[in-house]
Amino acid sequence: MSYPSPLSHLIEVVESSDIDALAAAIDAVDPSEFVLSDAEVDRLRWALHLRRARVREGLTETPLPRAELQAQRTADASTRALFEHIVEANPSRSGWDVAPEVDFPGGVSPGDAAAQHEILAKGLRTGDVLVTRSPRMSSAGVAHLGADAGQFSHTLVVDVDPDGPVHVVAAYMEFGATDEDLRSFLAENRCTRIVVLRHRDGDLAARVGRAAHRRLVEGPPIAYDDVFNSDDPSELYCSEVPRWAFGKLVNEPVTLPLHHSPSDRPARKALQGAMGIDVPWLCSPVDYLVDPRLQIVAEWRDPSTIGLSRRQDAVIEAAMRWSDERGYVLSPGFVERATIRVGLAIRRTPVIGDLLKHTAGPDIRPQFLLGALTLQKAATLLLTELEGELGDRTPARGVLRDRLERIRERVPPNTSFHKWFHPKKP
């Protein structure tokens, strides 16, 4: 089929009413083949905004059937992936995508990540929720631990001090729950994606943000929840923080997020099982994106790292697919087991342990760390194989899938990533 222009083709893809057709069409699009002017990129940006707005108009506070929810998530993830590919090819049009009805100092504003972070700090309100992703393979793994369309790995609750810095409350495997300066968080995590969510009840959000900050500053420590029990606030994992803050922390019903990510998919059960996680569902960062009580205020992506993030996503999605369809399992070896044993022993040693405090908390379960380490090792090697074929180029999503299948067929057993991730032996 011929189109009057590349832009008309892309907009037709975005405006597809059939979500399955939308995802398939986006998988086949290679935006590097399209040369767009700045004005055309901005028109596509607006078409994507309208597409997402239509999706969210159908959301109510009644939970969606699972198939419909998954379709909404797929549409959101697919359209985001398309525009990220466009921005990577047209970095001069990067900047904050802002909902037109909100007060946020965004818009197209090319500049490095530090400049974009300054815009973020000026636009936040107490009680805002940040959903983020960093350019690390571990973040890709976390993003897909609970959700099929996982493009985000972390959530934070904001407290804006009128006379001081912006604080964010989060939870980390290394430290448990923390309260930290927003700029410190951004400098440490080099976020690839950031979405700002704002609760429609502004009074509740303001109360939540202040309470979360005070609890972490004035109260006893809260350990990291490495069993991912979303209903036990005595320990917290990262995407459990908004659920706790908007619920039990302020004596409100625990209703956030409206939807959860079930753990019944074979690949998900296998991955979680390798880490010793046995729960029927998780709170995933993407769950907050489809909660109608949370408005998507603004979104930004870093064009310098977004290609890497998409390749990482493709690798983890391939691993999940092979686990589902081909019975692949994680298989840690002696070196990995010894690394965890020795690392935890050193981490619990006074003085020396403090030098390693950015690696893992001293009380994290060994099985959780072993599963996470093995997944990261296998996925990193698979990414290396993929990048050896692609170079610096990130092609269409469908092409990425095909390349990864070829790599799976090409790499012999017990070599490269197949040493740690392979079909289950009889």
Distance between the termini: 49 Å
The outline comes out as globular
Radius of gyration: 21 Å
Structural class: alpha+beta
Give a count of the beta strands, DSSP E runs of length 2 or more.
Answer: 14
Overall residue-averaged pLDDT value: 81
From N to C, what is the helix and strand string?
HHHHEEHEHEEEHEHEEHEHEHEHEHHHHE
Main sheet specs: 8 strands, antiparallel
Helix content: 40-55%
Strands of the widest sheet, in order across it, are: 2-1-12-7-3-4-5-6
- Give the percentage of residues in beta strands: 5-15%
Enumerate how many helices there are, as a single number.
16
Characterization of this structure:
This protein is of the alpha+beta class. The chain is 48% helix and 14% strand. It contains 16 helices and 14 strands. The protein has helices at residues 6-14, 19-28, 38-57, 66-89, 113-123, 137-143, 182-189, 202-218, 241-245, 266-274, 285-289, 306-326, 334-347, 352-355, 366-390, 397-410, and strands at residues 95-98, 107-108, 129-133, 154-160, 166-172, 176-181, 193-199, 223-224, 235-236, 261-262, 281-282, 294-301, 328-330, 421-423. The strands form 4 sheets. An 8-stranded antiparallel β-sheet has the order 2-1-12-7-3-4-5-6, sandwiched between helices. Strands 8-9 form a two-stranded parallel sheet. The protein has a two-stranded antiparallel sheet with strand order 10-11. Strand 1 (95-98) and strand 2 form a beta hairpin. Helix 12 (306-326) crosses helix 15 (366-390). The N and C termini lie far apart (49 Å).
